[in-house]
Amino acid sequence: MKLFTNKIGYLTIALALTVSSCSKDFLNAVPELDLSDATVFNSPARVLSQINGIYGSAKSGSLFGGRYLIYNDIRAEEFVNRTTNSVTGYSTYQGNQDPSDTYLAGFWIQGYLTINRANLFLEGLAANPNAVSSALAANYRGEAKFIRALTYFSLVQFFAKPYILDKGASAGLPLRLKGETSSANNNLARSTVAQVYDQILKDLNEAETELPDSYASALLNTTRAHKNSAIALKTRVLLAKGDYAGVITEANKIVSSTAPYKSNARVAHTLQADVSSVFKAPYTSTESIFSFPMDATNAPGTQNQLGYYFNAGNVEYYLNTGSTGIYSNPQFAATDDRKTKLTVATTSIAKFPSSTKFSGVSPYIDFVPSIRYAEVLLNLAEAEAEGGNINRAIDILNAVHKRSDPSYVFTGLDSKANVVKAILTERRIEFLAEGFRANDILRRGESINSFGAGAVIPSSDPRYIYGIPLVETQTNPGIGN
């Protein structure tokens, strides 16, 4: 069998392109497409190189290294386009969810390429039980399942109706759990959204069991999945399901019962005193649960990287200062460090505020944050509020907000609805330019207030979710609509 030959024809080209981009993480004694199972798994070093390859595929600029985060932000109300550049998501910004869009197709392809890498790796590892020690094999299985779960979750957010609309009964994704090396299994129907979520949580539960407590360095604890990574991602997935009790159960594994909120279990996690330090080298603070590393020779590509889109050095998209944008919200006060340290008021390019969380265009060396401890805390706060534990929800909300703006005093937190609203507003502030906005809207079944479309897009509107790309519908007769 050829390792990493893809499930359908369009992935073969994509794979050939991504192999070279991940070369730094591989032992390329022979071309990857020519490696047999026996060759790939004939030494611990080669097995490790395949795990690195899964991470390398996931951090592509077409996936978690860029476009996944970017598209989630620009399709809502926080950003204003400056350039009308079709390469940098202008169609998405305008609310045009066209199945023929090349860049959405690239996201789909890269997602399934990453899933297929994980599937092939898991099968190859099972077929070569003596390749590494049993403990290391479990570690690697957990990492592959973690990345597979993260990828499926991201795809189902983009291309399927939110779970909350019908408890996951609508069409989800083709659920591919076996490695594909030819086009023989192209014909695969979409599983339901609920079935996709079930598989994601199955992978994460198994990953939590198999992954190590920690690694030997802060760098590895940030860039490779460990038990707390799986737990943290579960809080995100369960929140998207509306399973608030589940969120609380998982979050309590890594959040102390009282302030200061932190985790001393396995890898230590806590909020940084200075929020801006999270986005500075070495990018390995205790707040960073999982990030994708970048460096000057292994970057996501100029028109994929976050700094190219949002940073003052280029400014494809600047911040919306109007009434619908979070920048002008009273909860995002002028005294807030997230405004004074992570945005800039004007630049020579755009006479409007821009996000400075990510550095300029070149060289792009910022790590891409995927899971932060602040997210776990706000996931927990929202779940506690929805479950009726208003006091704890407010305490956690204050912990996140006051690390950036100690003088701010919340008012009107006298009902569940008001507390939930404040938490959702806090998420808009805390995760600005980190790829959360659209998913936070959709997972609650709310309308998208699209600045680019100049319209409010309800859940009944075809533009609410992305259409399955033509590259899939034209090669998979079982996909349906």
What does this structure look like?
The chain has 481 residues and is mainly alpha-helical. It has a single domain, classed as Serine Threonine Protein Phosphatase 5, Tetratricopeptide repeat (Alpha Horseshoe), CATH 1.25.40. The chain is built from 19 helices and twelve strands. A two-stranded antiparallel sheet has the order 1-7. A two-stranded antiparallel sheet has the order 2-3. Strand 11 and strand 12 form a beta hairpin. The N terminus is likely disordered.
**In the CATH classification, which architecture applies?**
Alpha Horseshoe
Strand arrangement, major sheet: 1-7
Give the overall average pLDDT. Answer: 91
Number of helices: 19
Largest sheet: 2 strands, antiparallel
Helix content range of the residues, please? 40-55%
Q: Tell me, what's the shape?
A: globular
User: Uncertain segments of ≥5 residues (pLDDT<50)?
Assistant: 1-10, 12-35
**What portion of the residues fall into strands of 2 or more residues?**
5-15%
CATH class: Mainly Alpha
Question: What value does the Rg take, in angstroms?
Answer: 21 Å
Helix-strand category: mainly alpha
Extended strand count: 12
C-alpha end-to-end distance: 33 Å
Q: Please tell me the total number of domains.
A: 1
CATH fold-level assignment:
Serine Threonine Protein Phosphatase 5, Tetratricopeptide repeat
